[in-house]
Write a structure and sequence with these properties.
The chain is α/β, with parallel strands linked by helices. It folds into two domains: about 150 residues, no CATH class; about 280 residues, NAD(P)-binding Rossmann-like Domain (Rossmann fold), CATH 3.40.50.720. Strands 10-9-11-12-13-18 form a six-stranded parallel beta sheet, with helices on both faces.
């Protein structure tokens, strides 16, 4: 649908009205207008009249089949809608979406924004002949973001989610968030699941009926990797390959966490997901090899998230190191010619959980995620001391004055426009996230 069309403009204005005033939307008969209100959720005119509105699932791939979800009946109740499916006489399902196999209706037809009367009648006739079934536990878990004028009843679908690297920074933050998340989580580490063993992965996912994998596990000792390339390759490359193979074979979503180190750090603008990669060392190369393996295997509805400068209230990281040094020393030197954006692991973990139910991609896609803002390690250290009120002077030095076995990228800024636009997420500013982390650690003064 062209964004300059009158229909699109009218819809946008009506959408603002319904969100603000709880009023109903009216539009022309047989027009099906789709807006991304959650996970490919739009609204269409109900057959009962132009003043009735109901949600519709625009398009979904499920087990390599195409589905369109449409409520077959709707009942108005005190200016609110109560949706049902009537799949047999006096037999109703209260799921807001159905899984209905379509015969030959393409994605483009719906993205065009309208359907002819003949097509509409043909579609209605076909839908009435099909059996409507509620969403299964293993499959799409769709959540619509609608105004309060629409009452929804969704099937109580819980996903079984495997989080590898469960004791690391990101895994530990995900564990904290899981306490208030409705899904079922399985957190593993090397002792409970060796992800460099494909048979072990397959046995685990089958035993626990896993629907999605969040791979937080990684070999992150950047300097040590230079002399331990074999182990780094097993964890960062081969393990990702095995996870991808198991995910693809069992129709499991895979969210894999990668790094800014896949770039050489010589850019002049924030890196896009599509920019050419050129890692400097073993760590970056093995992480890139893992990405390539996953992309080649192409598990359905799966993504790669590149991040940078991760810290947390859990584990060892730059923030906790600076806090320790700030209490032990009168001054310290920190590199000022490496620029990037920190990532509070809790923010990233929350973003992953928000993104998971929205995944509908057919091919593996790459996204960038860090907190908002631009700074150097020196700036970061200065702000840590300031917030924690530690009397430790921070002095700037150049990278050349602090030699390490592995080369670090001088420029690590990642462009996050794609992930924000696709999943409608808001990313916190780095100072706000640092403040929350220090409060979590009891170090904010």
């Amino acid at each position: 649908m062209k964004k300059d069309s009158k229909l699109y403009d009218q819809w946008n204005e009506n959408k603002k009205t319904i969100c603000a005033n709880d009023t109903l939307i009216k539009f022309q008969q047989f027009h099906i207008v789709f807006m991304k209100m959650g996970v490919n959720i739009g609204f269409e005119q109900d057959g009962k009249g132009s003043e009735y509105l109901r949600p519709v699932l625009v398009y979904k791939k499920f087990n390599n089949r195409v589905f369109l979800g449409i409520p077959l009946t709707s009942i108005a109740k005190s200016d609110k809608f109560h949706f049902e499916f009537e799949y047999k006489k006096h037999k109703k399902s209260y799921a807001i979406l159905s899984q209905i196999k379509l015969f030959d209706i393409k994605r483009a037809k719906y993205y065009d924004g309208k359907i002819s009367k003949k097509q509409f009648e043909k579609l209605q006739e076909k839908l009435l002949d099909l059996i409507v079934t509620p969403l299964q536990a293993k499959g799409e878990c769709t959540k619509a973001i609608c105004s309060t004028s629409i009452a929804q009843k969704q099937p109580n679908v819980k996903l079984n989610i495997l989080v590898t690297g469960g004791n690391g920074q990101l895994g530990s933050e995900a564990r904290e968030l899981s306490l208030t998340n409705p899904n079922n989580f399985f957190f593993t580490d090397i002792e409970s699941l060796d992800i460099t063993n494909k048979e072990a992965i397959e046995a685990f996912v089958l035993t626990h009926k896993i629907d999605a994998i969040i791979n937080c596990a990684a070999y992150t000792a950047v300097d040590k990797a230079e002399s331990d390339a074999e182990l780094a390759d097993k964890v960062n490359h081969l393990a990702v390959k095995y996870l991808s193979e198991v995910a693809k074979a069992n129709d499991i979503i895979l969210i894999h966490i990668s790094t800014d180190y896949v770039f050489d750090g010589k850019n002049y603008r924030p890196y896009l997901e599509s920019d050419s990669t050129s890692p400097n060392g073993v760590y970056g190369k093995t992480k890139l090899d893992g990405e390539k393996a996953m992309i080649e295997l192409n598990p359905n509805r799966s993504i790669i998230i590149r991040t940078a400068w991760v810290y947390s209230s859990f584990g060892a990281n730059f923030v906790k190191t600076m806090l320790r040094f700030g209490k032990e020393r009168e001054q310290l030197t920190v590199i000022y010619d490496q620029v990037g954006s920190p990532t509070y692991a809790r923010d990233l973990a929350q973003a992953i959980l928000d993104i998971l139910p929205q995944l509908d991609n057919e091919s593996v896609e790459i996204y960038n995620y860090t907190n908002e803002g631009v700074l150097s390690w020196f700036d970061f250290a200065k702000e840590i001391m300031k917030m924690a009120k530690l009397d430790c002077a921070v002095l700037p030095i150049e990278t050349k004055d602090y030699p390490t076995p592995a080369s670090r990228p001088h420029y690590s800024l990642l462009n996050k426009a794609k992930i924000k636009a696709k999943f409608n997420i808001t990313i916190p500013y780095w100072k706000d996230s640092l403040d929350r982390c220090l409060r979590e650690l009891g170090e904010r003064r």
